[in-house]
Design goal:
Blueprint: H1 10-17, E1 24-27, H2 34-43, E2 50-54, H3 61-67, E3 72-75, H4 82-88, E4 94-100, H5 105-109, H6 135-141, H7 144-155, H8 160-173, H9 179-186, H10 195-210, H11 213-227, E5 228-238, H12 241-253, E6 261-262, E7 268-269, E8 272-274, H13 284-289, E9 297-303
Parallel strand pairs: 1-2, 1-4, 2-3, 4-5
Antiparallel strand pairs: 5-9, 6-7, 8-9
The structure holds S-adenosylmethionine.
Protein backbone atom coordinates (compact mmCIF):
# COMPACT_ATOMS: atom_id res chain seq x y z
CA UNK A 1 0.00 0.00 0.00
CA UNK A 2 3.02 2.28 0.35
CA UNK A 3 2.62 3.43 -3.29
CA UNK A 4 -0.65 5.01 -2.28
CA UNK A 5 0.50 6.40 1.06
CA UNK A 6 3.17 5.48 3.59
CA UNK A 7 1.53 5.61 7.03
CA UNK A 8 3.09 8.08 9.48
CA UNK A 9 3.84 7.31 13.15
CA UNK A 10 2.16 3.95 12.65
CA UNK A 11 2.97 2.21 15.94
CA UNK A 12 2.47 5.37 18.00
CA UNK A 13 -1.03 5.72 16.54
CA UNK A 14 -1.86 2.09 17.30
CA UNK A 15 -0.48 2.39 20.84
CA UNK A 16 -2.52 5.55 21.26
CA UNK A 17 -5.71 3.69 20.41
CA UNK A 18 -5.01 1.20 23.22
CA UNK A 19 -6.72 -1.56 21.21
CA UNK A 20 -9.08 -3.82 23.12
CA UNK A 21 -9.80 -7.28 21.69
CA UNK A 22 -13.29 -7.21 20.25
CA UNK A 23 -13.38 -3.41 20.32
CA UNK A 24 -14.92 -1.12 17.71
CA UNK A 25 -12.66 1.43 16.04
CA UNK A 26 -12.93 4.14 13.42
CA UNK A 27 -10.22 5.29 11.04
CA UNK A 28 -11.76 8.53 9.78
CA UNK A 29 -9.05 9.13 7.14
CA UNK A 30 -8.69 5.71 5.55
CA UNK A 31 -6.54 6.72 2.52
CA UNK A 32 -4.28 3.83 1.57
CA UNK A 33 -5.46 1.92 4.63
CA UNK A 34 -1.98 1.68 6.15
CA UNK A 35 -3.20 2.46 9.66
CA UNK A 36 -6.38 0.44 9.25
CA UNK A 37 -4.49 -2.64 8.11
CA UNK A 38 -2.35 -2.48 11.23
CA UNK A 39 -5.36 -1.94 13.50
CA UNK A 40 -6.94 -5.09 12.04
CA UNK A 41 -3.70 -7.02 12.39
CA UNK A 42 -3.21 -6.02 16.01
CA UNK A 43 -6.85 -6.65 16.90
CA UNK A 44 -5.92 -10.28 16.19
CA UNK A 45 -7.30 -12.74 13.64
CA UNK A 46 -9.97 -14.22 15.91
CA UNK A 47 -11.09 -10.95 17.27
CA UNK A 48 -14.72 -10.05 16.96
CA UNK A 49 -13.63 -6.42 16.61
CA UNK A 50 -14.95 -3.96 14.05
CA UNK A 51 -13.35 -1.18 12.09
CA UNK A 52 -15.01 1.60 10.13
CA UNK A 53 -12.87 3.39 7.55
CA UNK A 54 -14.09 6.79 6.35
CA UNK A 55 -12.76 8.57 3.28
CA UNK A 56 -14.40 11.17 1.10
CA UNK A 57 -12.12 10.26 -1.82
CA UNK A 58 -13.63 7.51 -3.97
CA UNK A 59 -10.10 6.34 -4.86
CA UNK A 60 -9.65 5.04 -1.31
CA UNK A 61 -12.36 2.40 -1.64
CA UNK A 62 -10.17 0.01 -3.68
CA UNK A 63 -7.67 -0.04 -0.83
CA UNK A 64 -10.42 -1.19 1.54
CA UNK A 65 -11.45 -3.87 -0.96
CA UNK A 66 -7.82 -4.98 -1.22
CA UNK A 67 -7.70 -5.54 2.55
CA UNK A 68 -10.72 -7.80 2.16
CA UNK A 69 -11.46 -8.24 5.86
CA UNK A 70 -15.05 -8.76 6.94
CA UNK A 71 -14.44 -6.71 10.10
CA UNK A 72 -13.81 -3.61 7.96
CA UNK A 73 -16.63 -1.38 6.69
CA UNK A 74 -15.61 1.36 4.26
CA UNK A 75 -17.72 4.51 4.45
CA UNK A 76 -17.40 6.81 1.44
CA UNK A 77 -18.21 10.00 3.29
CA UNK A 78 -16.80 13.10 4.85
CA UNK A 79 -15.92 12.43 8.48
CA UNK A 80 -18.05 15.41 9.47
CA UNK A 81 -20.95 12.92 9.10
CA UNK A 82 -19.43 10.38 11.50
CA UNK A 83 -22.21 10.23 14.08
CA UNK A 84 -24.90 9.76 11.45
CA UNK A 85 -23.07 6.85 9.80
CA UNK A 86 -22.15 5.12 13.04
CA UNK A 87 -25.79 5.26 14.06
CA UNK A 88 -26.74 3.79 10.68
CA UNK A 89 -24.33 0.89 11.28
CA UNK A 90 -25.57 0.46 14.85
CA UNK A 91 -22.23 1.37 16.37
CA UNK A 92 -23.33 4.46 18.32
CA UNK A 93 -20.32 4.35 20.65
CA UNK A 94 -16.81 3.16 19.80
CA UNK A 95 -13.57 2.35 21.62
CA UNK A 96 -11.24 4.50 19.56
CA UNK A 97 -11.04 6.96 16.69
CA UNK A 98 -7.99 7.68 14.56
CA UNK A 99 -7.58 10.76 12.35
CA UNK A 100 -4.59 11.25 10.04
CA UNK A 101 -5.55 14.62 8.62
CA UNK A 102 -4.87 16.25 5.27
CA UNK A 103 -4.21 14.70 1.89
CA UNK A 104 -2.58 11.41 0.95
CA UNK A 105 0.55 10.97 -1.15
CA UNK A 106 -1.71 9.44 -3.80
CA UNK A 107 -3.72 12.66 -3.99
CA UNK A 108 -0.72 14.96 -4.15
CA UNK A 109 1.16 12.72 -6.60
CA UNK A 110 -1.76 12.37 -9.04
CA UNK A 111 -1.20 15.31 -11.42
CA UNK A 112 -4.80 15.77 -12.52
CA UNK A 113 -6.01 16.26 -8.94
CA UNK A 114 -4.32 19.67 -9.01
CA UNK A 115 -2.93 19.50 -5.44
CA UNK A 116 0.71 19.76 -6.41
CA UNK A 117 2.75 22.73 -7.54
CA UNK A 118 4.94 20.23 -9.44
CA UNK A 119 2.52 19.40 -12.27
CA UNK A 120 0.39 21.50 -14.56
CA UNK A 121 -3.27 20.50 -14.34
CA UNK A 122 -6.72 21.96 -13.83
CA UNK A 123 -6.97 23.85 -10.56
CA UNK A 124 -9.10 21.25 -8.83
CA UNK A 125 -7.86 20.30 -5.31
CA UNK A 126 -11.05 18.48 -4.28
CA UNK A 127 -10.54 15.47 -2.03
CA UNK A 128 -14.09 14.44 -2.85
CA UNK A 129 -14.30 14.37 -6.65
CA UNK A 130 -18.09 14.79 -6.43
CA UNK A 131 -17.92 18.03 -4.46
CA UNK A 132 -19.13 21.23 -6.12
CA UNK A 133 -16.36 23.64 -5.28
CA UNK A 134 -12.94 23.53 -6.95
CA UNK A 135 -9.87 25.70 -6.49
CA UNK A 136 -10.58 27.16 -9.91
CA UNK A 137 -13.93 28.46 -8.67
CA UNK A 138 -12.38 29.87 -5.50
CA UNK A 139 -9.65 31.71 -7.39
CA UNK A 140 -11.95 33.06 -10.10
CA UNK A 141 -15.05 33.96 -8.14
CA UNK A 142 -14.21 34.87 -4.55
CA UNK A 143 -14.22 38.59 -3.71
CA UNK A 144 -10.79 40.05 -3.02
CA UNK A 145 -11.29 40.42 0.77
CA UNK A 146 -12.23 36.72 0.97
CA UNK A 147 -9.13 35.69 -0.95
CA UNK A 148 -7.08 37.90 1.35
CA UNK A 149 -8.60 36.23 4.41
CA UNK A 150 -8.06 32.70 3.10
CA UNK A 151 -4.47 33.29 2.03
CA UNK A 152 -3.60 34.98 5.32
CA UNK A 153 -5.44 32.64 7.65
CA UNK A 154 -5.11 29.26 5.97
CA UNK A 155 -1.79 29.74 4.20
CA UNK A 156 -0.13 32.22 6.55
CA UNK A 157 0.97 33.97 3.36
CA UNK A 158 2.74 37.12 4.58
CA UNK A 159 1.82 39.30 1.58
CA UNK A 160 -1.75 37.95 1.44
CA UNK A 161 -3.33 41.32 0.62
CA UNK A 162 -1.02 41.88 -2.37
CA UNK A 163 -1.47 38.31 -3.57
CA UNK A 164 -5.28 38.58 -3.36
CA UNK A 165 -5.16 41.82 -5.37
CA UNK A 166 -2.87 40.17 -7.94
CA UNK A 167 -5.32 37.30 -8.41
CA UNK A 168 -8.23 39.68 -8.93
CA UNK A 169 -6.23 41.70 -11.43
CA UNK A 170 -5.02 38.60 -13.35
CA UNK A 171 -8.48 37.06 -13.59
CA UNK A 172 -9.95 40.29 -14.97
CA UNK A 173 -7.89 39.62 -18.13
CA UNK A 174 -8.29 35.88 -18.39
CA UNK A 175 -9.62 33.23 -16.04
CA UNK A 176 -7.09 31.32 -13.93
CA UNK A 177 -7.80 27.72 -14.84
CA UNK A 178 -4.66 25.71 -14.29
CA UNK A 179 -1.81 25.29 -11.84
CA UNK A 180 0.48 27.07 -14.29
CA UNK A 181 -1.99 29.95 -14.79
CA UNK A 182 -1.94 30.43 -11.03
CA UNK A 183 1.82 30.22 -10.77
CA UNK A 184 2.30 32.64 -13.65
CA UNK A 185 -0.12 35.13 -12.11
CA UNK A 186 1.76 35.06 -8.79
CA UNK A 187 5.37 34.44 -9.81
CA UNK A 188 6.47 38.03 -9.24
CA UNK A 189 5.00 38.08 -5.72
CA UNK A 190 6.94 35.01 -4.58
CA UNK A 191 9.79 36.08 -2.28
CA UNK A 192 13.11 35.47 -4.06
CA UNK A 193 14.68 32.16 -3.03
CA UNK A 194 11.50 31.15 -1.15
CA UNK A 195 9.31 30.43 -4.16
CA UNK A 196 8.58 26.83 -3.16
CA UNK A 197 7.49 27.79 0.33
CA UNK A 198 5.36 30.64 -1.02
CA UNK A 199 3.51 28.44 -3.51
CA UNK A 200 3.12 25.67 -0.93
CA UNK A 201 1.41 28.21 1.35
CA UNK A 202 -0.87 29.49 -1.41
CA UNK A 203 -1.82 25.92 -2.37
CA UNK A 204 -2.41 24.97 1.25
CA UNK A 205 -4.74 27.94 1.70
CA UNK A 206 -6.77 27.06 -1.39
CA UNK A 207 -6.92 23.38 -0.49
CA UNK A 208 -8.20 24.12 3.02
CA UNK A 209 -10.89 26.38 1.60
CA UNK A 210 -11.93 24.03 -1.21
CA UNK A 211 -12.32 21.10 1.19
CA UNK A 212 -13.56 23.12 4.19
CA UNK A 213 -10.92 21.26 6.15
CA UNK A 214 -11.03 23.25 9.37
CA UNK A 215 -14.82 23.38 9.49
CA UNK A 216 -15.01 19.61 8.93
CA UNK A 217 -12.42 19.04 11.67
CA UNK A 218 -14.37 21.20 14.15
CA UNK A 219 -17.62 19.46 13.31
CA UNK A 220 -15.96 16.08 13.76
CA UNK A 221 -14.33 16.97 17.09
CA UNK A 222 -17.62 18.25 18.47
CA UNK A 223 -19.17 14.81 17.89
CA UNK A 224 -16.29 12.89 19.52
CA UNK A 225 -17.46 13.08 23.17
CA UNK A 226 -20.78 11.55 22.21
CA UNK A 227 -19.41 8.72 20.07
CA UNK A 228 -16.54 7.61 22.31
CA UNK A 229 -17.23 5.17 25.13
CA UNK A 230 -15.88 6.25 28.53
CA UNK A 231 -12.18 5.37 28.44
CA UNK A 232 -12.26 5.38 24.61
CA UNK A 233 -9.37 6.97 22.79
CA UNK A 234 -9.06 9.83 20.30
CA UNK A 235 -5.83 9.81 18.27
CA UNK A 236 -5.28 12.73 15.90
CA UNK A 237 -2.35 13.46 13.64
CA UNK A 238 -2.19 16.94 12.14
CA UNK A 239 0.26 18.48 9.72
CA UNK A 240 -0.10 22.22 10.24
CA UNK A 241 -0.55 24.55 13.16
CA UNK A 242 -4.14 25.54 12.37
CA UNK A 243 -5.34 21.95 12.68
CA UNK A 244 -3.14 21.19 15.65
CA UNK A 245 -4.42 24.24 17.52
CA UNK A 246 -8.04 23.14 17.10
CA UNK A 247 -7.21 19.61 18.27
CA UNK A 248 -5.13 20.82 21.21
CA UNK A 249 -7.75 23.31 22.40
CA UNK A 250 -10.55 20.82 22.07
CA UNK A 251 -8.67 18.18 24.06
CA UNK A 252 -7.40 20.53 26.75
CA UNK A 253 -10.33 22.91 27.07
CA UNK A 254 -13.34 21.16 25.56
CA UNK A 255 -13.72 24.04 23.11
CA UNK A 256 -11.87 25.79 20.32
CA UNK A 257 -11.42 29.20 21.92
CA UNK A 258 -11.29 30.67 25.39
CA UNK A 259 -10.59 29.06 28.71
CA UNK A 260 -11.91 25.80 30.06
CA UNK A 261 -15.15 26.14 32.03
CA UNK A 262 -15.21 25.12 35.70
CA UNK A 263 -17.93 23.66 37.88
CA UNK A 264 -18.89 25.04 41.31
CA UNK A 265 -15.99 23.19 42.91
CA UNK A 266 -13.42 24.49 40.46
CA UNK A 267 -13.15 21.26 38.47
CA UNK A 268 -12.64 21.53 34.71
CA UNK A 269 -15.72 20.77 32.64
CA UNK A 270 -14.36 18.98 29.60
CA UNK A 271 -15.11 15.63 28.01
CA UNK A 272 -11.57 14.52 27.17
CA UNK A 273 -8.38 14.03 29.12
CA UNK A 274 -5.07 14.45 27.34
CA UNK A 275 -2.76 11.42 27.36
CA UNK A 276 0.16 13.21 25.69
CA UNK A 277 1.43 16.33 27.43
CA UNK A 278 3.30 17.29 24.30
CA UNK A 279 2.47 16.11 20.79
CA UNK A 280 4.40 13.06 19.59
CA UNK A 281 6.60 13.71 16.56
CA UNK A 282 8.40 11.42 14.13
CA UNK A 283 12.01 10.42 14.76
CA UNK A 284 14.75 11.66 12.37
CA UNK A 285 14.91 8.07 11.05
CA UNK A 286 11.25 8.04 10.09
CA UNK A 287 11.53 11.51 8.56
CA UNK A 288 14.50 10.34 6.48
CA UNK A 289 12.44 7.39 5.21
CA UNK A 290 9.21 9.35 4.81
CA UNK A 291 9.62 13.15 4.53
CA UNK A 292 5.87 13.59 4.90
CA UNK A 293 6.30 12.68 8.59
CA UNK A 294 8.30 15.89 9.10
CA UNK A 295 5.44 18.10 10.21
CA UNK A 296 3.27 15.44 11.88
CA UNK A 297 2.01 16.15 15.38
CA UNK A 298 0.19 13.36 17.14
CA UNK A 299 -2.14 14.01 20.07
CA UNK A 300 -3.93 11.38 22.11
CA UNK A 301 -6.86 11.84 24.46
CA UNK A 302 -9.21 9.66 26.45
CA UNK A 303 -12.91 10.16 27.07
CA UNK A 304 -13.45 10.84 30.75
C1 LIG B 1 -3.13 11.56 5.23
S1 LIG B 1 -4.27 10.60 4.34
C2 LIG B 1 -4.51 9.20 5.36
C3 LIG B 1 -3.56 8.09 5.09
C4 LIG B 1 -3.84 6.83 5.85
N1 LIG B 1 -3.70 6.99 7.26
C5 LIG B 1 -2.93 5.71 5.36
O1 LIG B 1 -2.21 5.13 6.19
O2 LIG B 1 -2.93 5.41 4.17
C6 LIG B 1 -5.75 11.46 4.57
C7 LIG B 1 -6.96 10.84 3.90
O3 LIG B 1 -8.11 11.37 4.54
C8 LIG B 1 -9.05 11.77 3.60
N2 LIG B 1 -9.79 12.89 4.19
C9 LIG B 1 -9.29 14.10 4.53
N3 LIG B 1 -10.25 14.87 5.04
C10 LIG B 1 -11.38 14.12 5.05
C11 LIG B 1 -12.71 14.36 5.47
N4 LIG B 1 -13.10 15.55 5.98
N5 LIG B 1 -13.61 13.36 5.38
C12 LIG B 1 -13.24 12.16 4.87
N6 LIG B 1 -12.00 11.88 4.42
C13 LIG B 1 -11.08 12.85 4.52
C14 LIG B 1 -8.29 12.13 2.37
O4 LIG B 1 -9.08 11.95 1.22
C15 LIG B 1 -7.10 11.17 2.42
O5 LIG B 1 -7.34 10.00 1.70
Amino acid sequence: MSDYHEPVLLQACIDGLNLQPGGTYVDITFGGGGHSREILRQLGPDSAGRLFGFDQDADARVNAQAIGDSRLTFVASNFRNIKRYLRLYKAEQVDGILADLGISSHQIDTPERGFSTRFDADLDMRMNQQADRTARQVVNSYPEPELHRILGMYGEVTNARTVAAALVSARSNRSIDTVNDLKNALQRYAPRGKENKFFAQVFQALRIEVNEELVALEEFLEQVPEILKPGGRLVVMSYHSLEDRLVKNFINKGKFQGEVEKDLYGNDIKPLQSITRKPIEATPDEIARNPRARSAKLRIAEKI
